[in-house]
Amino acid sequence: MSLASGLPETHQLRPSTPCRATHQDGREWVVCQQVGEHVLGFAFPATQPLGSNDAEQGIARMEAAPSCALTLGAPLSWPESDPLLRALTRQRAREHAALASQARAPFVPGQSKIPPSGKVVGEPEVENLIEASLDLWLTAGRFSDQFEAAIARTFGATRAIAVNSGSSANLVALSTLTSPQLGTRALQPGDEVITAAAGFPTTVNPILQNGLVPVFVDSDLATGNIDPALIEVAISPRTKAIMAAHTLGNPMDMREIMRIARKHGLWVVEDCCDAFGSTLDGQLCGTFGDIGTLSFYPAHHITMGEGGAVFSRDPLLMKIAESFRDWGRDCYCPPGKDNTCGKRFCWKLGQLPEGYDHKYTYSHAGYNLKITDMQAAVGLAQLQRLDGFIARRRANHAALALALRAHGADQHLLLPEVLPGADPSWFGFLMVLKPDAPCTRNALTAYLEQQGIGTRLLFAGNLTRQPYFATQPHGVASPLTQADTLMEQAFWIGIWPGIESAQIDYMARTIAAYLGTAWND
Hints:
By secondary structure, this protein is of the alpha/beta class. Helices cover 32% and strands 16% of the residues. It has three domains: 9-86; 124-383, 3-Layer(aba) Sandwich (Aspartate Aminotransferase, domain 2); 386-515, Aspartate Aminotransferase, domain 1 (Alpha-Beta Complex). It is built from 13 helices and 19 strands. The termini are far apart.
């Protein structure tokens, strides 16, 4: 029957109902949509099943034909229509994302806002998100599996698990070290964990939440990182671990930290939430210690909205980490799967009756910290763009440092320094006002905010001075002089991939002008 208008309702082609058809030139078609007196479709053999690649390739070569030139065949039945409908939906999503990205307003100095952090998302992320939403799996699924495998490959890890935030990643990583499965090396309540006083709360909070005692040491002012020279003197008979972050992407001295850890038999947790892609001597940060963490909040190197990851080369640590993430259960079946071990009703654990369902046997006091597959789909698209993001962050950081020095701002600002052999994947641009600066830190940041330049302090500053810490058990192994300086004099601004050269130049000139060092060139 012809596709011309006036067909009975049961034969009318709707955009959501692809069908087979025969062109008057003899070619067999798949018709995707009717537009007025024309149809859109592509040539495809009637005897060949339509797969995902076929649908994508067909849409790419889609052509229009007068409806009177085609004879309508049977609608595509489910599930054969699934790949075509998905491909059409993704195409529309790509078109929407492309138009949205073109609508970005041009930068106007003094009027446009320059946020200190942000996300760069577009067609790949929208396409993946749509694809995952069409699955309606909702919890962790195929995209999550792909994402975790990709993170593990990136770090040469035995396994990586995705969690719902970088803070949760730190909680899972530190909790893993308390497992009885680690025998005499398991952290016990009251044990001490050495960490930096200057930093983000959720690098330290997991220590408290596990009944352990954080022991604070000071930081190096030039890098913002924990001072390794102070770690060894902080070690006591109760010290069992070191947990610290690579500040704003600037690698800690992991060579010295690992020397100390090996000498004293300490666990090392590397918080890489701000340092995805940073290296030291060509080795990725996160691969020096026993277990590492990442964050995928929108401010970070890649994003999935909310999310994080835990990774390690140690298979036992990853088995335990997965248990803590997944309610503390002993079973390791993925969502929607049963009896992966082949003996679901054959275990005898704890004081449970023999044969008690392994899916409901718990070896740890765990949580539910999994992500959804929609988040993982966005993260997977972002991960494929990571190298470009890192390159842009490095280029922006170098350009800003060069511009600040060219305008003389380094007379009054201590600019970031890096260790020999370090190649940071920068999160932000840290600055510390020198004692002879002509203004206070607060005055400078207030001015920058008025000029549209977003600023941030170095997170919590000296954590021991935060209100909630007044009642928390902790130790202080050395004077926290530099942590106080970072709290009082440091701030950072953005170098994320959405920032361009005109914004870099504007930020440098504005800072230097307020400090009285700008050149009028």
